Amino acid sequence: MKTKDLYKKNEECCGCSMCANVCPAKIIHMQPDKTGFMYPVIENEESCLHCRKCQKVCPLKNTREKDSKFIDFYAASYKNDTDTISCSSGGLATAISSLIIKQGGIVYGAAYTDDYKKVIYERADSEEKLEKLKGSKYAQAEKGNIYKLISRDLNKGVKCLFIGLPCDVAAVVEYFKQNRNLYTIELVCHGPTSNDVQKQYCEEIEKKYSSKIIFFTNRYKKNGEWKPFYNFVQLENGKIFFEQFHKSSFGTAFRYLKRPSCYVCSVKDKALMGDLMIGDYHYVEDGMVGYNIHGVSSALIHNNKGNELISLLEKNMNIVSIPERNALANGAIHHPIAAPKGYAKYKQIYLRQGLSKAHSMWIVVLSNYKRFCKAVFLKIAVKIKRKLWPISRPK
After folding, report:
1. 112 near 95, Cβ under 8 Å?
2. Quick one: which of 5, 139, 356, 376 has the fewest CB in 10 Å?
3. For residues 209 and 237, is the Cβ–Cβ distance under 8 A?
4. What is the pLDDT of residue 385?
């Protein structure tokens, strides 16, 4: 086996790292490319055992064999507004995670390192540790030894919940073969940016304020309102910095510098492998069932395990059944988000001059202005439509 046998071009690798985890010869190692995305590299090719386990667990090589479906659809938010405000949307992933912890289980999910300059997968066995997993992370999490920890816990008969991007979930499900103690939640995914973006963004803020970051989030709810959401940073010297995510250099990188495989992702629709999928219920609006100004989560159930998790949350959460068409309205569930115009030039400037310079490119500025105008127009148009034609409001 050679590295080219794992992937011939970057679009063919999602960075799940499972190939490195299963290699019995320990010759596959994850290394970052120039933009900060991790890729497997085979070293000491002569030591390969030719078992091909690395190919068998690859989620991108097995999508054609899948035929997953959604069986139920829900919207959810905490009954306590304070709890909802503390989460990215309605708090469904946090509520389920808390339930697993209280049952003596373990939760695995994305967390920031202590300096907030990298996203990694971590293991949480207490409510305190669970705090690090709260909130959306928009840089791709490095896996480290997380799969070995899951294997150890499952071998002990411990209930485990894995929360991650669909490709990571697919790799976990494929490797652990539907272990009865394994529960998985896949996130509605538009594709992550890299940890290099996370690092540069944080370092620029620290340089600007001459202080270290002590708290960071991409999903701060200003005045408790779900949208628009903000990057929020608290610094050691007491300073506070925040800006709208989609207007920030980080938000721009999230559009223009995704992992190459994300622009052509095949782990969508019928190739999804989790027990349930969770995301923001963007379709909901004031007056609809399940609406909460502080945020609403959507839950798209794949199987009985997914329904099992949802059914145990009624004490703390408002959970309502929603129409299938509403739940599936987010295009990212069904197909990859295409690369924006000018993304190749953006990458070039990013590599040469950094995050801020790439953000100030004229094509980016123009694109952001068009997006802003479109959002304002649609908001006004919907208000007018609802006023002139009240029965047009979705239920």
Report:
1. no
2. 376
3. yes
4. 73
Q: Which DSSP state fits 230?
A: E
Beta strand 317-321 with 182-187: parallel, antiparallel or unpaired?
A: unpaired
Residues forming a β-bridge with 278: 187, 299
- DSSP for 86-118 reads TSSSS-HHHHHHHHHHHTT-EEEEEEE-TTSS-
Find the length of the chain.
395
- pLDDT, residue 331, reads 94
d(CA 132, CA 20) in angstroms, rounded, equals 26
Measured CA to CA, the distance from residue 306 to residue 327 in angstroms comes to: 15
Q: Which of 250, 347, 214, 229 is nearest to 294 (CA)?
A: 229
CA distance 84 to 99: 16
d(CA 101, CA 107): 7
- DSSP code at position 119: E
Q: pLDDT tens digits for 151-170?
A: 999 999 999 999 999 999 99
Cβ contact 144:40 at 8 Å: no
- Strand boundaries in the chain, DSSP class E: 28-32, 38-42, 72-78, 106-112, 119-124, 160-164, 182-187, 213-220, 230-235, 240-244, 276-280, 297-301, 317-321
* 79 neighbors 271 (Cβ within 8 angstroms): no
Three-state SS at 278: strand
Which tokens go with 267?
């782990």
- H helices present in 210-332, as ranges: 249-256, 304-311, 324-327
Q: What is the DSSP letter of 139?
A: B
- pTM value? 0.94
Q: 3-state SS of 62-89?
A: CHHHCCCCCCEEEEEEECCHHHHHCCCC
Q: Rounded to an integer, what distance in angstroms lies between the CA atom of residue 377 and that of residue 371?
A: 10
Tell me the β-bridge partners of 298: 75, 279
Q: Find out whether 4 and 54 touch, Cβ atoms under 8 Å.
A: no
Residue 367 has what DSSP assignment?
Answer: H
Cα atoms in the 13 Å half-sphere on the side-chain side of 211: 13
Which regions in the chain score pLDDT beneath 50? Answer: none
The pair of three-digit structure tokens given for residue 113, joined into one six-digit string: 């390192």
pLDDT of residue 287: 82
- In this structure, is the dihedral angle defined by the CA atoms of residues 266, 268, 271 and 273, taken in order, positive or negative? positive
